[in-house]
Amino acid sequence: MYTRVMKPAPSSKRELWVVGGLLALIAVLGFVALRPAPAPVIPALEKTSVTVAIAGEVKTPGVYTLPFGSRVAALVAAAGGYSSTAEPSLVNPVQILTDGDQVRVPSKFAAQALSAAGGSKTGSSKTPTGRVNVNTASPSELEALPGVGPKMAAKIVAGRPFAGMADLDKVKGIGPSMLKKLEPFVKF
Question: For residues 87 and 184, what is the distance between their CA atoms, to the nearest angstrom?
Protein backbone atom coordinates (compact mmCIF):
# COMPACT_ATOMS: atom_id res chain seq x y z
CA MET A 1 0.00 0.00 0.00
CA TYR A 2 1.19 3.35 -0.73
CA THR A 3 0.19 6.80 0.32
CA ARG A 4 -0.62 9.33 -2.18
CA VAL A 5 0.47 12.88 -1.46
CA MET A 6 -1.67 15.47 -3.03
CA LYS A 7 -0.04 18.59 -4.21
CA PRO A 8 -2.12 21.70 -3.71
CA ALA A 9 -3.44 23.24 -6.80
CA PRO A 10 -2.06 26.63 -7.74
CA SER A 11 -5.26 28.34 -6.59
CA SER A 12 -4.97 26.51 -3.26
CA LYS A 13 -1.49 27.97 -2.69
CA ARG A 14 -2.90 31.43 -3.11
CA GLU A 15 -5.66 30.62 -0.64
CA LEU A 16 -3.07 29.37 1.85
CA TRP A 17 -1.14 32.61 1.52
CA VAL A 18 -4.31 34.67 2.05
CA VAL A 19 -5.32 32.58 5.08
CA GLY A 20 -1.78 32.80 6.47
CA GLY A 21 -1.72 36.56 5.94
CA LEU A 22 -5.09 36.95 7.65
CA LEU A 23 -3.92 34.87 10.62
CA ALA A 24 -0.80 37.02 10.90
CA LEU A 25 -2.92 40.18 10.76
CA ILE A 26 -5.28 38.83 13.44
CA ALA A 27 -2.31 37.96 15.63
CA VAL A 28 -0.84 41.47 15.30
CA LEU A 29 -4.21 43.12 15.97
CA GLY A 30 -4.79 40.84 18.96
CA PHE A 31 -1.38 41.77 20.36
CA VAL A 32 -2.09 45.47 19.93
CA ALA A 33 -5.56 45.19 21.43
CA LEU A 34 -4.44 43.16 24.44
CA ARG A 35 -1.39 45.29 25.16
CA PRO A 36 -1.86 47.27 28.39
CA ALA A 37 -2.71 50.89 27.78
CA PRO A 38 -0.06 53.40 28.76
CA ALA A 39 -0.59 54.95 32.18
CA PRO A 40 -2.59 58.17 31.91
CA VAL A 41 -0.79 61.36 32.66
CA ILE A 42 -2.35 62.71 35.83
CA PRO A 43 -1.60 66.28 36.82
CA ALA A 44 0.03 66.68 40.19
CA LEU A 45 -2.52 66.46 42.95
CA GLU A 46 -0.42 68.68 45.14
CA LYS A 47 -2.28 71.75 46.19
CA THR A 48 -0.25 74.89 45.95
CA SER A 49 -2.96 77.22 47.20
CA VAL A 50 -6.28 77.31 49.00
CA THR A 51 -9.21 79.58 48.27
CA VAL A 52 -11.03 80.62 51.43
CA ALA A 53 -13.58 83.20 52.51
CA ILE A 54 -13.61 85.44 55.53
CA ALA A 55 -16.68 87.27 56.81
CA GLY A 56 -17.69 89.26 59.82
CA GLU A 57 -15.58 91.71 61.72
CA VAL A 58 -12.53 92.21 59.50
CA LYS A 59 -11.57 95.30 57.54
CA THR A 60 -11.99 93.72 54.09
CA PRO A 61 -14.21 90.59 54.11
CA GLY A 62 -14.11 88.50 50.96
CA VAL A 63 -12.56 85.55 49.16
CA TYR A 64 -8.78 85.12 49.25
CA THR A 65 -6.30 82.70 47.72
CA LEU A 66 -3.46 81.85 50.09
CA PRO A 67 -0.56 79.38 49.96
CA PHE A 68 -1.41 75.79 50.89
CA GLY A 69 -0.94 75.25 54.64
CA SER A 70 -1.83 78.84 55.59
CA ARG A 71 -3.42 79.52 58.93
CA VAL A 72 -6.38 81.68 59.95
CA ALA A 73 -3.98 84.40 61.14
CA ALA A 74 -2.66 84.80 57.56
CA LEU A 75 -6.23 85.08 56.26
CA VAL A 76 -7.08 87.75 58.82
CA ALA A 77 -3.92 89.65 57.84
CA ALA A 78 -4.85 89.36 54.13
CA ALA A 79 -8.28 90.78 54.98
CA GLY A 80 -6.65 93.86 56.52
CA GLY A 81 -6.86 92.70 60.13
CA TYR A 82 -9.64 92.71 62.67
CA SER A 83 -12.12 95.58 62.77
CA SER A 84 -12.46 97.61 65.96
CA THR A 85 -15.63 95.68 66.88
CA ALA A 86 -14.14 92.20 66.40
CA GLU A 87 -13.76 89.62 69.17
CA PRO A 88 -10.46 87.90 68.24
CA SER A 89 -10.56 85.60 71.26
CA LEU A 90 -13.29 83.57 69.51
CA VAL A 91 -11.11 82.93 66.45
CA ASN A 92 -8.44 80.24 66.42
CA PRO A 93 -5.52 81.96 64.64
CA VAL A 94 -3.42 78.79 64.30
CA GLN A 95 -6.09 76.67 62.61
CA ILE A 96 -4.84 75.44 59.24
CA LEU A 97 -7.10 76.43 56.36
CA THR A 98 -8.39 73.95 53.81
CA ASP A 99 -9.71 74.79 50.38
CA GLY A 100 -13.27 76.10 50.57
CA ASP A 101 -13.21 77.07 54.26
CA GLN A 102 -15.14 80.07 55.48
CA VAL A 103 -13.98 81.89 58.59
CA ARG A 104 -16.42 84.11 60.46
CA VAL A 105 -15.06 86.68 62.88
CA PRO A 106 -17.74 87.51 65.45
CA SER A 107 -18.25 90.94 66.93
CA LYS A 108 -17.80 91.80 70.60
CA PHE A 109 -21.56 92.24 70.77
CA ALA A 110 -22.18 88.73 69.47
CA ALA A 111 -19.64 87.39 71.96
CA GLN A 112 -21.42 89.18 74.79
CA ALA A 113 -24.77 87.79 73.65
CA LEU A 114 -23.31 84.28 73.48
CA SER A 115 -21.80 84.66 76.90
CA ALA A 116 -25.10 85.92 78.33
CA ALA A 117 -27.09 83.15 76.67
CA GLY A 118 -24.86 80.20 77.44
CA GLY A 119 -22.32 81.37 80.00
CA SER A 120 -22.15 80.67 83.71
CA LYS A 121 -21.71 83.05 86.65
CA THR A 122 -17.98 82.40 86.68
CA GLY A 123 -17.73 83.92 83.22
CA SER A 124 -16.59 80.74 81.50
CA SER A 125 -19.01 79.83 78.76
CA LYS A 126 -19.37 76.44 77.14
CA THR A 127 -17.70 77.25 73.81
CA PRO A 128 -15.20 75.30 71.76
CA THR A 129 -11.70 76.66 71.19
CA GLY A 130 -11.99 76.28 67.38
CA ARG A 131 -14.72 75.61 64.87
CA VAL A 132 -16.47 72.26 65.22
CA ASN A 133 -17.27 70.35 62.04
CA VAL A 134 -20.87 69.28 62.60
CA ASN A 135 -20.53 66.53 60.00
CA THR A 136 -17.64 64.73 61.71
CA ALA A 137 -17.72 65.76 65.37
CA SER A 138 -18.52 63.26 68.09
CA PRO A 139 -21.57 63.88 70.31
CA SER A 140 -19.30 65.04 73.14
CA GLU A 141 -17.60 67.54 70.81
CA LEU A 142 -21.02 68.81 69.72
CA GLU A 143 -22.01 69.25 73.36
CA ALA A 144 -19.19 71.82 73.69
CA LEU A 145 -21.22 74.12 71.43
CA PRO A 146 -23.39 76.75 73.14
CA GLY A 147 -26.92 75.51 73.74
CA VAL A 148 -26.19 71.92 72.69
CA GLY A 149 -26.79 69.16 75.22
CA PRO A 150 -26.79 65.37 74.84
CA LYS A 151 -30.25 65.24 73.22
CA MET A 152 -29.50 68.02 70.72
CA ALA A 153 -26.11 66.45 69.90
CA ALA A 154 -27.90 63.17 69.12
CA LYS A 155 -30.37 65.01 66.84
CA ILE A 156 -27.49 66.71 65.02
CA VAL A 157 -25.68 63.39 64.52
CA ALA A 158 -28.90 61.79 63.23
CA GLY A 159 -29.51 64.64 60.77
CA ARG A 160 -26.10 64.47 59.03
CA PRO A 161 -24.80 65.44 56.53
CA PHE A 162 -25.18 69.22 56.55
CA ALA A 163 -24.04 71.51 53.73
CA GLY A 164 -24.59 74.76 55.61
CA MET A 165 -26.53 76.63 58.26
CA ALA A 166 -29.80 76.22 56.32
CA ASP A 167 -29.49 72.44 56.61
CA LEU A 168 -28.68 72.70 60.31
CA ASP A 169 -31.84 74.80 60.76
CA LYS A 170 -33.89 71.73 59.71
CA VAL A 171 -32.90 69.86 62.89
CA LYS A 172 -35.87 69.85 65.26
CA GLY A 173 -35.13 72.17 68.18
CA ILE A 174 -32.70 74.44 66.31
CA GLY A 175 -34.26 77.74 65.43
CA PRO A 176 -33.02 81.15 64.29
CA SER A 177 -31.74 82.20 67.73
CA MET A 178 -29.81 78.95 68.22
CA LEU A 179 -28.37 79.25 64.71
CA LYS A 180 -27.00 82.69 65.62
CA LYS A 181 -25.37 81.18 68.71
CA LEU A 182 -23.84 78.32 66.75
CA GLU A 183 -22.71 80.16 63.62
CA PRO A 184 -19.34 81.44 64.95
CA PHE A 185 -18.42 77.97 66.22
CA VAL A 186 -19.40 75.52 63.48
CA LYS A 187 -18.11 74.52 60.08
CA PHE A 188 -19.29 72.04 57.47
Answer: 11
